[in-house]
Every structure is written in structure tokens, then in C-alpha cells.
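TL;DR need C-alpha cells for one chain.
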Amino acid sequence: MSQPWRHGASALIGALLAVTPISSPASADETPVRGGTLIYGINSGDPPTYDCHQSALFPIIHLLSPHYSNLLRIDTRNYPKLIGDLAESWTLSPDAKVYTFRLRANVKFHDGSPFSA
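>> reply
TL;DR here they are.
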């Protein structure tokens, strides 16, 4: 048994696709504009904790990462390059099994105690 509404819906979808403009990628001669504000949403509600080590929720990383230092960070301008955060430098053993990190001096935890290995 034929369903006449299907033909009308198909025609409507086809017409919408025919008149919907498709944006083209930016041309190579356009210069990116630096600065401004990026606003984005994270659908997590209030975090259950502000201790990122006690949470298994991925969105917690976005909420809390500005408040934590890491040994290394991803260099966002040169992804996937790594840059030091608490590590000043690091070396890798010839067998690629041991990393040796030189830690930054004079770093303190939130309670004032010195950062150390």
C-alpha cells in the first residue's frame, strides 16, 4: 500500500537541500583574527567534587584543568607536541622504557609545601 505523504516529504526534503547554501572553506589568503572570547558549554551540571582525582567524569577535566599543573602539557599551538609544565626538561632512555624528568624549582603546592618527586 502506497503512502502518499512520503512522496510529499521526499519532495520537500529535496527542495530544501536544493536551496540550502553550502558554505565554502575559508580561502588561503584570509588572515585568522587573534583574540576575542570563546564561550562553550559543558553538560555536566555542578561537579560532584573539585578533586579531579576523585571523579571519573570527563567534563571535570575542562572545569578543573586551569587549576592544576601537570608534569607535561600539550602545546595547543603545535599539537601534538608536548611542552613542560612542572617538568623543565626530560630524557628518554635508549630502550624507551625510562623517562627522567627535571622538575621546576621553587614550585609550591596550594598549602605552601614544596613540590618534589
